């Protein structure tokens, strides 16, 4: 039975060429886009959109921290492969829940666009398009975190 050793996880510049660490950069991009699109938009209702903002900011900050831990080589302990799987699994669950909420409320905005509102049709259409973009980016971020989780679990299992 093989034990987990510190050389299982890449460090330094090797994180730019190894799977699943290569997903760090797209996770930054799509997670940051979700954050920016939701933050730059009309937010109603606030509570569910607050969850979407929390998830996008939380995952962005923790992925940044995770990235620098791997880059600096502080991931040499035998617990890091399991922590890697755990963090990315939590990120998938969080992002999936946020994506579903965001899609649900975007559908609601689409119904308001079609039925008329006190806002001008152009303003509603802009809000709707920004929300659609946020939904797409959120599901792409979910997919990237899911792939990262799968490849991390495979690596963890082999170690």
UniProtKB/TrEMBL annotation:
GO BP terms: myelination
GO molecular function, one term: structural constituent of myelin sheath
The MARVEL domain, residue ranges: 15-157
Chief location: membrane
InterPro entries to which the protein is assigned, alphabetical: MAL, Marvel, MARVEL-CKLF_proteins
Transmembrane segments: 22-43, 49-73, 85-107, 127-151
Record keywords, A-Z: Lipoprotein, Membrane, Transmembrane, Transmembrane helix
This protein's GO CC annotations: membrane
Membrane-topology annotation of the record: Multi-pass membrane protein
One family name in Pfam for this protein: MARVEL
Protein location: Membrane
Domain of life (superkingdom): Eukaryota
UniProt similarity note: Belongs to the MAL family.
Protein name: Myelin and lymphocyte protein
């Amino acid at each position: 039975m093989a034990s987990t050793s510190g050389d299982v996880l890449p460090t330094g510049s090797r994180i730019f060429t190894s799977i699943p660490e290569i997903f760090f950069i797209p996770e930054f991009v799509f997670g940051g886009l979700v954050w920016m699109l939701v933050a730059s938009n009309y937010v109603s209702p606030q509570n569910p959109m607050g969850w979407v903002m929390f998830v996008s900011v939380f995952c962005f900050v923790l992925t940044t921290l995770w990235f620098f831990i791997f880059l600096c080589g502080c991931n040499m302990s035998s617990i890091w492969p399991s922590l890697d799987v755990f963090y990315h699994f939590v990120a998938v669950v969080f992002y999936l829940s946020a994506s579903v909420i965001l899609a649900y409320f975007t559908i609601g905005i689409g119904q308001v666009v079609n039925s008329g509102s006190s806002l001008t049709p152009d303003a509603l259409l802009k809000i709707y398009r920004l929300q659609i973009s946020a939904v797409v980016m959120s599901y792409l971020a979910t997919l990237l975190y899911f792939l990262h989780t799968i490849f991390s679990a495979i690596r963890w299992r082999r170690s």
